[in-house]
C-alpha cells in the first residue's frame, strides 16, 4: 500500500518541480534583462553627460596589427558627432548611435558616419577595410572612462572624458602638429644619458617598432595634442611609459628621464629633394645606343612620386624617345626612393595588355626575376649620387628591372626568338646621377 502511495506521489512531485524550475528560470531571465536594461541606460546617460565629449584611442587591424587613430566624440540625444585625425579638424560628422543589449551591452554607431566608417568599410584593395570596428562591447565604466572591445576585431580601447575647457579644433590641430613634427621615423631610445635602443616611430603608419632591454615592441600609437599615447606601455627597468610628450627644442618624445630622440640617418633626404630629372647609370648589354633618364614629380600623398622613365634610342644622327609612366615610393625611414613591381601603361600601343615592370638580379649571364624585389636608391654625400642600396626588402637583393609586354589576355607576348617581348630593359641600374631639379 505504501508503495502505491509513493507511485501516486511521483507524478505530482515532478509537476511541482517543473513548475518551480520554470518560475525560477523566468525570474532569473527577467532579472537579467532588467539589469541589462539598467546598465544600457546608465551607459547612455554617462556618454551624454560630458559637455565637451570624449577622446577615443582607436586601433585598427586584428590583434592591433594596423594603425592607431585619434577620435573625438560627443553624444547628445541619440546622435554622435565625431572628429578624427585622419580627416582633420575641418571635418566633423554626425550620425545615430545607441547602447543596446547584444550578448552584453554594446555601443553601436548604426548609421553612416563619415569619420568613423571610413575606418570600417570595405574597398576594392581592402576587402576588410582597415579592419576597424563600429560596434563595441562595453566592458566596464567609471565616471571618466568607458572600457570598450571591438565586436568584430576584438581590440580593447578606452573612451576618456575630455576636460571641460577642451576645444576640439585646437586639440586636433595640436595632435596634427605633433605628427608633422616627426620629420623622419628613426629614433634613439634614451634613459638618462644612455642610449638603450634604436627604433622607429612612424607618423604615417602610427606604429612603434623597437627592441628595448630584450623586449620587442611592435604596436600602434595615437596622437594627442601634446605627444603620443602607446597602445601598451614601454617597460624600462620596471617603469612603464604609456604617454610621451613632444619637446620641439630637443626634437624628442619625453617622459621624465626616458625619451625617444629623433635622429636623421646618413643620406636622408626629404621627398621634395627627389623631384626633377635624373640620369640612370646602367650597364648597356646591347649594341643599341641608349640613354635613360627618370623624371620624378609629386605623387599621391606624402610617400609616393609620379615617375616617367624616358628611354632614348640613338641610330646614327637620329633618335627616338619613349616615355613610360610609373610610380615610385618614398621611404620615410631612410629618405630614399624605391621602385617595385607594377603595371605600366604602354605609350606606344604595341602591347594591348600594357607592360609589367619586374625587378630582377643579374649574375653573370643569368638574370632571375624577383617579384617582391625592391630597388632602393639612397643619397651618397661622397659621390653626390643616389646609390642602389640593399635595405633587406624583398626575398633577395635586386639590381635591374625590365618591362615585359602583355597581350589583351594579360599573358606575356613572345618575340621572334620565343622569348618574352621587352618594352624596356635596364640592367645593373646602380646609380641615379646628374640631378636637374624641377623648374
Which terms would index this structure?
single chain, 439 residues, 3 domains, 9-stranded antiparallel β-sheet, 8-stranded antiparallel barrel, 3 helices, 15% helix
Explain what you see.
15% of the residues lie in helices and 46% in strands. With 439 residues, it is mainly β. The protein has three domains: 54-166, Lipocalin; 172-262; 271-436. Strands 4-3-2-1-9-8-7-6-5 form a nine-stranded antiparallel sheet. The protein has an eight-stranded antiparallel barrel with strand order 10-11-12-13-14-15-16-17. Strand 26 and strand 27 (385-389) form a beta hairpin.
The main pleated sheet reads as:
9 strands, antiparallel
Number of domains: 3
Q: List the uncertain runs.
A: 1-10, 24-28
Multimeric state:
single chain
Residue fraction in strands: over 45%
Q: Please tell me what the overall shape is.
A: elongated
Mean of pLDDT: 91
Question: How much is the radius of gyration in Å?
Answer: 31 Å
Separate helix tally? 3
Helical proportion, percent range? 10-25%
Distance between the termini: 115 Å
- Describe the strand arrangement of the main beta sheet, using strand numbers: 4-3-2-1-9-8-7-6-5
- Tally of strands: 30
Structural class, by secondary structure, is mainly beta
Amino acid at each position: 500500500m505504501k508503495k502505491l502511495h509513493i507511485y501516486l506521489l511521483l507524478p505530482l512531485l515532478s509537476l511541482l518541480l517543473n513548475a518551480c524550475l520554470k518560475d525560477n528560470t523566468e525570474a532569473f531571465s527577467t532579472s537579467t534583462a532588467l539589469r541589462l536594461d539598467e546598465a544600457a541606460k546608465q551607459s547612455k546617460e554617462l556618454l551624454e553627460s560630458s559637455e565637451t565629449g570624449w577622446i577615443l584611442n582607436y586601433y585598427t587591424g586584428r590583434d592591433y596589427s594596423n594603425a592607431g587613430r585619434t577620435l573625438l566624440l560627443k553624444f547628445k540625444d541619440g546622435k554622435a558627432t565625431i572628429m578624427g585625425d585622419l580627416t582633420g579638424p575641418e571635418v566633423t560628422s554626425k550620425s545615430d548611435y545607441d547602447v543596446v543589449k547584444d550578448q552584453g551591452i554594446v555601443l553601436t554607431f548604426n548609421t553612416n558616419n563619415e569619420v568613423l566608417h571610413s575606418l570600417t568599410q570595405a574597398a576594392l584593395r581592402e576587402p576588410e577595410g582597415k579592419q576597424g570596428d563600429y560596434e563595441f562591447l562595453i566592458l566596464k565604466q567609471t565616471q571618466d572612462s568607458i572600457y570598450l572591445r571591438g565586436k568584430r576585431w576584438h581590440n580593447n580601447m578606452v573612451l576618456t572624458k575630455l576636460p571641460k575647457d577642451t576645444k576640439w579644433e585646437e586639440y586636433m590641430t595640436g595632435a596634427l602638429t605633433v605628427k608633422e613634427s616627426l620629420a623622419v621615423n628613426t629614433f634613439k631610445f634614451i634613459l638618462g644619458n644612455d642610449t638603450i635602443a634604436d627604433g622607429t616611430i612612424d607618423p604615417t603608419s602610427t606604429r612603434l617598432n623597437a627592441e628595448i632591454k630584450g623586449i620587442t615592441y611592435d604596436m600602434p600609437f595615437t596622437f594627442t595634442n601634446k605627444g603620443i599615447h602607446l597602445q601598451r606601455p614601454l617597460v624600462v627597468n620596471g617603469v612603464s611609459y604609456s604617454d610621451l610628450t613632444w619637446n620641439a627644442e630637443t626634437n624628442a618624445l619625453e617622459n621624465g628621464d626616458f625619451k625617444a630622440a629623433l635622429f636623421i640617418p646618413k643620406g636622408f633626404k626629404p621627398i621634395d629633394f627627389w623631384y626633377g630629372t635624373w640620369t640612370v647609370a646602367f650597364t648597356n648589354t646591347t649594341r643599341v645606343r641608349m640613354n635613360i633618364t627618370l623624371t620624378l614629380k609629386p605623387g599621391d600623398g606624402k610617400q609616393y612620386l609620379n615617375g616617367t622613365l624616358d628611354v632614348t634610342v640613338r641610330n646614327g644622327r637620329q633618335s627616338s624617345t619613349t616615355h613610360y609612366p610609373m610610380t615610385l615610393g618614398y621611404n620615410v625611414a631612410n629618405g630614399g626612393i624605391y621602385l617595385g613591381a607594377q603595371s605600366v601603361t604602354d605609350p606606344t600601343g604595341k602591347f594591348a595588355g600594357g607592360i609589367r615592370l619586374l625587378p630582377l638580379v643579374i649574375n653573370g649571364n643569368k638574370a632571375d626575376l624577383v617579384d617582391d624585389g625592391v630597388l632602393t636608391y639612397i643619397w651618397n654625400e661622397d659621390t653626390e649620387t643616389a646609390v642602389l642600396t640593399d635595405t633587406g626588402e624583398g626575398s633577395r637583393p635586386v639590381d635591374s628591372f625590365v618591362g615585359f609586354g602583355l597581350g589583351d589576355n594579360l599573358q606575356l607576348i613572345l618575340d621572334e626568338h620565343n622569348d618574352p617581348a621587352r618594352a624596356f630593359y635596364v640592367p645593373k641600374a646602380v646609380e641615379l646621377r646628374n640631378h636637374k631639379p624641377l623648374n
